[in-house]
Every structure is written in C-alpha cells, then in structure tokens.
Amino acid sequence: MKRRHFIKNASLTGVGLAVGSTLVGCAENTSEKTSSTTIASSDDKKATLPLVIATWHVKDATAKAMEILQAGGNALDAVEQGCMVEEANEKGQSVGKGGLPDRDGNVTLDACIMDKHGNCGSVVYLQNITHAVSVARKVMEDTPHVMLAGEGAKQFAVSKGFKPEDLLTEASKEAWEKWKIEAKYKPIINIENHDTIGMLAIDKNGDISGACTTSGLAYKMGGRVGDSPIIGSGLFVDNEIGACVATGLGEEVVKTVGSFLVVELMRQGKSPQDACEEAISRIVNKPNSNYKDFQVGYIAVNKKGETGSYSIHQWFSMTKFQNGVNEQIQSDYFNKTKTT
Ligand code: SD4
Questions:
Q1: Coil, strand or helix at 156
Q2: 170: CA distance to ligand 1 center in Å?
C-alpha cells in the first residue's frame, strides 16, 4: 500500500504530515494457541481474549504484544513492549529512532500510556531517548505527575537508566536535507512518511491498557507537540468501557478531544465502529472544515472485545491479533469522493 494513496495534502503551515503505514515484515496468521477467554457480547457474537489492535500495519508489534498476553502477561506490559518494537525500528520514520526531525533537524518524541486503573503517564518533546513509551510509563509509575516535557523528561529518563543516543539516522537526515532544499520552509504536500503507533490491548483478565508513541509531524515547528501524548486526545482508556487511540493530524484530534470522545460515545451505547465514525464526523462536519487536506484515523475497542476503526480518507488500516490471527484490516473511511 503506497502512502501516497493514503493522503494527498498536508496543510499545517510549513509542516509535512507524517501519516502512513509502518511497513514491517511479519508472518501472516502468527498463531500461538494457548488458553483464552471467551466473552459474550450483547449481540451474541463471541469475542475471544486476549486481543490487541494497533494503528497501521505493524504486525511485528502486535505479535510482540500477543506473545506477552498469551503468556499471561498484562495489557500494560503488552502495549508498552508492542510499541517498543516500532520505536526501535529505524525504518519507521515517524516513531522513535529514525523518526523524521522537526524543521531544525531535531528528532522530538511524544508518547503516552494508560492503564486499567486510569493511571497515565506522558512525555512530550523528548529528545535522544528511543523508548519514549517506556519513559512515559516511568512517569506514570515513579512520579506524582502525568506529563514531563523536554529537557526535564530527558533528565528524568537518564536518571531511570535510559541511555541517550542520536535518534537522527542517516536516512532521516538525508530526507530532512532533501526537504530543506525543496520545501524551503514552505508548506509541502504529499510527504511520503511512516506513522505513529497507537496500541490497545485486553488481557486474559479482561483488563484494558493503551499506549501511543510518535516523532510527530515531519518538519514540524520546533517545540510543536501533537495529540499523541495528550491523554484524552491521542489516547484514552476507561477499563469499564473501552479504549481509543488516534493517528493523523494531531491538531484536529486535539480540537475534538477525539479519543475521550470515542470512549464516551461507547459509554452511551455506541459500538466501537459507530463511535469512531461519529468522532470523525465531528471533524469533517465543522463549518469550513478543510478535511480534504488532512487525515485522522481512530481505532477503538470496547469491554466486550469488539473493535472498530475509521478515518477521513482511504488507506488507513488497523492491525488486529486475536484468535491466533495477526491481520491487517483496511479501515472504512469518510471521504468516498476521492478518485486516487
Ligand atoms: C501528531 N498524531 O503528532 C501525530 C502524528 C501522526 O499520523 O499520528 N501522524 O500529530
């Protein structure tokens, strides 16, 4: 699937929209059959636990998460370690090491994590630490705070034993230098990039956790923070109801507090699919919405283990690992008028 088919334009002043699928090789139908729990949903469908879903095509990441869940591990460990797979993957140019930098050449990471108790931790504008999601977990577990930013977040990470390193790989540096020549700090379109990973899991006990990690928009303004580390926007987990995680143009997600909205809609009785569709409709139906120029996608899961995904434009996908099947599922989308 070519990223260029996924989104045509990026229209945040001077910023390339880093959206697309992280392409990683992984065997289809990875199957590790062990014990599992079956829970009945209201419409008599059977949802089998554990399960994990993630934004985009990230089968290596969901496989790692499922390995933990099948071994009896909890959803929090699963989403953290699943996301870490993509953070360490230098080919994924919007997450962790190898992420595309801001316009000044600095790779700055945003991440958050949320557990079954509603505890959360987040890091914003974190530099030189690959596993931002793990730093976010440390913020959640080892500090009285929810969010740490910039140099403070980095110092905290180092104090916890994370090793600073240069996250700008040769490939990302080359891409940035090319961008500088061609874009000259002006708005650019059709950036061919890879994407944020957001992951949601339900463990064998039926408990839900979620995580999200990204290097954000490529060539963003220095200091820019997106939706991904903002609890309620990029991610929200309510263990009584379900969870949601977002990808795409973070500014639009923040303006509608998208992930919290999806979970609240599920609380009111909507299925994960209908809730994701309603959250997208809040964006595209705004007066003067320029949704044709940007992408937003949501994935969600409810307490019954039902899942949903929806985006503004075509080519968003969700990776789902359940019942021994690790598969990429194309998302339905709003803008059916596109001809590409
Ligand atoms: C951001 N939502 O920083 C992230 C980036 C992303 O697809 O998900 N791109 O706005």
A1: helix
A2: 22
Question: Is any atom of ligand 1 closer than 6 Å to the C-beta of 216?
Answer: yes
Please state the separation of Cα 66 from the chain's center in Å. 17
**CA angle (86, 275, 263) in 5-degree steps:** 70
User: Of all protein residues, whose CA lies closest to atom 5 belonging to ligand 1?
Assistant: 216
Q: Which residues are catalytic?
A: 196
Q: Which of 3, 15, 215, 217 maximizes ligand 1 atoms within 8 Å of its Cβ, making it the mutation to test the pocket? A: 217
Q: How far is the CA of 99 from the centre of ligand 1 (A)?
A: 12
pLDDT (tens, 9 = 90+) of the chain, 340 residues, equals 333 333 333 434 344 444 433 222 223 333 333 445 555 444 445 679 999 999 999 999 999 999 999 999 999 999 999 999 999 887 766 777 777 888 889 999 999 999 999 999 999 999 999 999 999 999 999 999 999 999 999 999 999 999 999 888 888 888 888 888 877 544 333 343 446 899 999 999 999 999 999 989 888 899 999 999 999 999 999 999 999 999 999 999 999 999 999 999 999 999 999 999 999 999 999 999 999 989 999 999 999 999 999 999 999 999 999 999 999 999 999 999 854 4
**According to the CATH classification, is domain 8-333 in 3.40.50.150?**
no
Which of 94, 108, 225 for a ligand 1 pocket mutation test, highest count of atoms within 8 Å of Cβ? 94
Q: State if residue 82 touches ligand 1 by the CB under 6 angstroms criterion.
A: no
- String of b and e for 223-252 (b: at least 16 CB within 10 Å)? ebbbbbbbbbbbbbbbbebbbbbbbbbbbb
Please state, in angstroms and rounded to a whole number, the distance separating the CA atoms of residues 148 and 136. Answer: 8
Beta carbon of 21 within 6 Å of any ligand 1 atom = no
Evaluate whether 210 touches 245 at the Cβ level (below 8 Å): yes
The residue whose C-alpha atom lies closest to atom 2 belonging to ligand 1 is 250
Residue ID of nearest Cα to ligand 1 atom 8 = 247
